[in-house]
């Protein structure tokens, strides 16, 4: 018996002991196991170009996708408004999943309700669920706003949110003037970034265009403010705080739309804050008057930005700006739009990032990278790697579209370091597995699921993306702005140095290179 | 130590009843009436806990429950390691349930083992409009091509499948014929079916019956020689290795485990189970159906057991042994004796730190009752418990064998109620899920996830008990909890201090 009270063995030690190993070996006999030689043969076969060809010929099967479904993004956007309770109309299990998913990433509570539709609602529609649900949520959780979205169940049966909300108000579920914006967010269209887009547009439409016919449309009276949209972003906490700091340094008057940086980072001080921070409802309404809107993620705001532009604002979309030039472009655009100069302090921060890059670029230059994630994140990371003299080889985005492919290809074509890179829209991490076997790279950048690729292919994983479940607190640090660039640089360097150390730490064998200074 | 332990049972009962009344006030009238039936204060001697259960969740209340898909794919089928499980429908369900349940297994993932792969038909609008059967047909071909060593396929239906009228049974039959009788199991576990995960368990159990047992017949496999001591572990999902730290005890007492359902399980083990002499059932809720079926059809008796904490483990080992001869009965005694020094050491180390601490639980499956004994072994007291998706038979078992008088009972608890109850009762520890964890930690209440073991485990068996005790101690006695209030804001609570 290996277990002891003195030194409690955890699962990763306990089962390695001889008693358990013997037990597991004996268990094999009951499993009708495959011949180990055959397993080995197939394992090696999956690494071949031949397998890759079959893998890329897939038309129906998706394996390990790097995307989630629309309502997740809708919930993420909705909690960025003051006192707002996301309400997802449809099956209840979905909501349990979104909440778990967000909590596992942020290590924070994630509050959201469901209208708990079941079989009878599938037959008769979910109107009663909406009426009762809104009344219950309103009374129990005292929200300032309830933002409605849908699961695929409600979409398949064709529930009409606009009509349902109207009827709910007529039945007194919530007061007539209570804000209940909505967005249809079918899971079988797009991904979580589409849901973010739809929900944000739904909320702005609600406030700007007459609250579903119950109020006059707002008349835009342009002011000097700038609206800022982060998009679906696993680093929302660190990033939005950094952006606020930058905006304040520049003296720009701003409104952050869907500011969930507080609700996903509440303190532990004895009080659970179900709502915290967020764009106030007044700010959301008054955002119509801004002179312009900047989105940090083009493909998170494909519908929202044109909607805002239609209201007369200048709109500008970035692709998850990371590193020196992308941050330069962002700040200059911000300066142009707001009429405010870029203060010396930011110039100094820029200089520090460039300084750090000159200090360390020798370790990154020429290293080959594979990247996957949301389309804007991939673009931003690729651009930063090119600045560092690194060579992106595979850039893959399951929820990337044709336009993303073309734009990313153009970025790569514009750099000496991007010439050997291919871009893969609509592909998944099983495709990436084949890519890493047949065209190996030095490092992989992606979310937590990349650890399976790291295990299978031996490519070291640098965790940047969403979700990151198995490392803690990275979302609290920005990856935007020059300081964010610094964080990304350090993260990449740490992995590179750790790998060099790992390869040189065998005593008397490889440790001549186990350098104390690098 | 908490305030509650100094009160009499009558006082506690009165306080808990008042707490329920207070909490119900927030609801609109109709909802209050419905919720009142799910909340109660247990009275000892009663045959159940006096709550309604397994009813629809109320819209908009923030139920903690999941869906039938979660019950089938997430719980019952997902851990079967050598089969490919397709999340059939849009991408989300498979994505959110990908690898999050910690069903440990041994195998070459992606080659002969597939538990932590997320395979989905990733439905697009055209699949909804034109139906998904054609895609499913092609998808099965692609699985066969890319994963030639898979031993079978299951199709886990997401909501749209049942709504758009797809015939996954016909596809399964046709493809099974095409692939020489390959096991292909369609599962109608659409998320809108039933009221919780629970119906998903039942549907998944029925799918084993219909598409595996009925396909093979009792006389087909296995190829091994039966012994009088063959048992199957039913309803252990090997979370953090739970089934392994259970199996080792059964084998040490002289039994032979021929199947694990379903943690680290395989199709061959499912198929072999009708050869078992006894089915031993840990999670009654999720697998009583198939156990009853095997009893009726194959005459295999089943017995429930509980491998949380030394008291229940010893009781269970003896109960299991009672189905066998003296050799096994002696084996059970030998096992109990062997582990007694470990038990003594664990209790000596941790009980003094945990004595008198109070716990509130809200979990699924078997745990709202099964872990109570383990807490009591450590001197802790469970003052509130309830089931996410329990039925009345769960509450009967809870009332008759586990909870004390005046325990607060809550069925299908929601966020609001849970917060109010914890705020009022001030337990020293809350055990629930990921959605609840951070809420209570913000409130300064120590918490352990009791679905995933908070990424620890195993908690089953003697080896698991040591980990359980260590984990509960580190949660309750972490120095962090003393830092929750800023010192300049920390106003002492005189009443609480006086009670200590």
Explain this structure:
The complex is a heterodimer of chains A (518) and B (500). Chain A has 518 residues and is an alpha/beta fold. Chain A is 47% helix and 11% strand. Chain A has a 5-stranded parallel beta sheet, sandwiched between helices. A 4-stranded parallel beta sheet of chain A has the order 6-5-7-8, with helices on both faces. The longest helix of chain A is centred in the last third of the chain and has 23 residues. In chain B, 46% of the residues lie in helices and 12% in strands. Chain B has a 6-stranded mixed beta sheet with strand order 1-12-11-10-13-14, sandwiched between helices. In chain B, α17 links the parallel β11 and β12. The longest helix of chain B is centred in the C-terminal third of the chain and has 29 residues. At the A-B interface, α2, α3, α4, β1 and α6 of A face α3, α4, β3, α5 and α6 of B.
Q: Which range best describes the helical content of chain A: under 10%, 10-25%, 25-40%, 40-55%, 55-70% or over 70%? A: 40-55%
How far the N terminus sits from the C terminus of chain A, by CA atoms, comes to: 45 Å
Which strands sit side by side, in order, in the main sheet of chain B? 1-12-11-10-13-14
Return the structural class of chain A: alpha/beta
- Which chain pair has the greatest contact? A-B, 110 and 130 residues
Secondary structure tally: strands of chain B: 14
**Average pLDDT value of chain B?**
95
- Give the helix tally of chain B: 21
Radius of gyration of chain A: 25 Å
Helix/strand/pairing category of chain B: alpha/beta
Which short descriptors sum up this protein?
heterodimer; A: 518 residues; alpha/beta; 21 helices; 13 strands; globular; B: 500 residues; 6-stranded mixed beta sheet; 4-stranded parallel beta sheet
């Amino acid at each position: 018996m290996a277990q002891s009270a003195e030194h409690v063995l955890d699962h990763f030690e306990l089962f390695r002991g001889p008693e358990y190993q013997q037990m597991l070996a004996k268990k094999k006999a009951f499993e009708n196991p495959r011949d180990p030689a055959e397993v080995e043969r197939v394992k090696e076969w999956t690494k071949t170009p031949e397998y890759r060809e079959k893998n890329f010929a897939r038309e129906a099967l998706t394996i390990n996708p790097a995307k989630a479904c629309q309502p997740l993004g809708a919930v993420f956007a909705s909690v960025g408004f003051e006192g707002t309770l996301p309400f997802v109309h449809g099956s209840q299990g979905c909501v349990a999943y979104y909440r778990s998913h967000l909590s596992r990433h942020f290590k924070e509570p994630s509050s959201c309700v469901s209208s708990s539709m079941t079989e009878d609602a599938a037959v008769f529609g979910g109107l009663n669920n909406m009426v009762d649900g809104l009344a219950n949520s309103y009374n129990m959780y005292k929200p300032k706003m309830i933002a409605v979205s849908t699961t695929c169940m409600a979409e398949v049966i064709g529930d009409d949110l606009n009509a349902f909300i109207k009827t709910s108000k007529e039945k007194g579920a919530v007061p007539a003037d209570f804000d209940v914006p909505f967005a249809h967010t079918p899971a079988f269209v797009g991904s979580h970034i589409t849901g973010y887009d739809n929900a944000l547009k739904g909320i702005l439409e609600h406030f700007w265009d007459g609250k579903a016919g119950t109020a006059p449309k707002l008349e835009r009276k342009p002011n000097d403010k700038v609206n800022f949209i982060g998009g679906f972003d696993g680093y929302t906490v660190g990033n939005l705080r950094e952006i606020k700091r930058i905006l304040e340094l520049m003296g720009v008057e701003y409104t952050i739309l869907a500011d969930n940086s507080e609700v996903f980072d509440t303190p532990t001080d004895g009080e659970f804050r179900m709502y915290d921070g967020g764009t106030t409802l007044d700010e959301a309404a008054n955002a119509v008057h801004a002179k312009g809107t900047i989105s940090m993620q083009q493909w998170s705001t494909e519908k929202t930005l044109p909607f805002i532009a239609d209201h007369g604002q200048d709109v500008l979309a970035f692709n998850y700006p990371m590193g020196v030039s992308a941050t330069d472009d962002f700040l200059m655009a911000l300066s142009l739009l707001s009429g405010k100069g870029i203060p010396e302090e930011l110039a100094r921060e820029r200089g520090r990032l460039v300084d750090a890059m000159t200090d360390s670029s020798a370790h990154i230059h020429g290293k080959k990278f594979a990247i996957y994630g949301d389309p804007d994140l991939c673009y931003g990371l690729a651009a930063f790697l090119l600045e560092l003299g690194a060579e992106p080889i595979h850039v893959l985005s399951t929820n990337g579209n044709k336009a993303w492919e073309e734009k990313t290809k153009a970025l790569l074509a514009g750099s000496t370091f991007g010439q050997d890179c291919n871009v893969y829209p609509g592909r998944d991490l099983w495709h990436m597995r084949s890519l890493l076997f047949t065209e190996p790279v030095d490092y992989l950048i992606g979310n937590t699921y990349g650890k399976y690729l790291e295990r299978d292919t031996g490519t070291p994983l640098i965790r940047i993306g969403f979700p990151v479940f198995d490392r803690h607190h990275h979302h609290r640090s920005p990856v935007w702005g020059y300081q964010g660039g610094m964080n990304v640089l350090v993260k990449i360097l740490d992995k590179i140095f750790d790998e060099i150390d790992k390869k040189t730490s065998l005593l008397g064998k490889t440790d001549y290179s186990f350098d104390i200074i690098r | 130590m908490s305030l509650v332990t100094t009160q009499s049972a009558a006082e506690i009962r009165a306080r808990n009843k008042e707490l329920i009344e207070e909490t119900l006030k927030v609801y609109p009238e109709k909802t209050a009436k419905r919720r009142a039936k799910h909340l109660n204060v247990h009275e000892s001697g009663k045959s159940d806990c006096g709550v309604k259960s397994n009813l629809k969740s109320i819209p908009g209340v923030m139920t903690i429950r999941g869906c039938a898909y979660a019950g089938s794919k997430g719980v019952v089928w997902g851990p079967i390691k050598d089969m490919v499980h397709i999340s059939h429908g849009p991408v989300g369900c498979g994505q959110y349930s990908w690898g999050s349940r910690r069903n440990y297994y041994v195998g070459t993932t992606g080659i002969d083992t597939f538990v932590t792969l997320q395979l989905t038909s990733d439905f697009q609008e055209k699949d909804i409009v034109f139906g998904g059967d054609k895609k499913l047909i092609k998808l099965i071909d692609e699985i066969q091509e890319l994963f030639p060593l898979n031993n079978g396929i299951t199709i886990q239906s997401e909501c749209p499948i049942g709504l758009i009228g797809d015939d996954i049974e016909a596809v399964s039959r046709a493809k099974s014929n095409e692939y020489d009788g390959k096991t292909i199991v369609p599962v109608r576990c659409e998320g809108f079916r039933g009221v919780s995960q629970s119906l998903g368990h039942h549907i998944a159990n029925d799918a084993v019956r219909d598409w595996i047992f009925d396909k093979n017949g009792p006389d087909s496999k296995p190829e091994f020689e039966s012994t009088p001591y063959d048992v199957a572990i039913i309803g252990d999902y090997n979370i953090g290795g739970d089934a392994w730290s259970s199996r080792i005890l059964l084998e040490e007492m002289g039994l032979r485990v021929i199947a694990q359902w379903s943690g680290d399980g395989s199709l061959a083990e499912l198929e072999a189970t009708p050869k078992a002499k006894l089915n031993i059932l840990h999670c009654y809720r999720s697998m009583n159906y198939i156990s009853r079926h095997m009893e009726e059809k194959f005459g295999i008796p089943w017995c429930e057991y509980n491998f949380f904490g030394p008291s229940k483990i010893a009781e269970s080992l003896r109960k299991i042994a009672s189905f066998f001869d003296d050799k096994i009965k002696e084996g059970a005694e030998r096992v109990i004796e062997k582990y007694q020094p470990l038990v003594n050491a664990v209790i000596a180390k941790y009980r003094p730190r945990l004595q008198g601490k109070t716990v509130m639980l809200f979990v699924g499956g078997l745990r709202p009752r099964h872990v109570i004994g383990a807490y009591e072994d450590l001197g802790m007291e469970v003052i509130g418990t309830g089931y996410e998706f329990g039925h009345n038979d769960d509450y009967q078992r809870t009332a008759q064998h586990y909870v004390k008088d005046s325990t607060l009972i809550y069925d299908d608890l929601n966020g609001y109620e849970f917060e109010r109850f914890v705020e009022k009762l001030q337990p020293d520890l809350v055990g629930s899920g990921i959605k609840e964890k951070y809420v209570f930690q913000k409130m300064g209440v120590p918490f352990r996830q009791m679905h995933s073991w908070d990424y620890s485990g195993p908690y089953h068996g003697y080896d698991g008990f040591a980990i359980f005790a260590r984990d509960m101690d580190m949660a309750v006695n972490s120095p962090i909890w003393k830092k929750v209030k800023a010192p300049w804001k920390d106003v002492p609570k005189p009443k609480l201090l006086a009670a200590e």
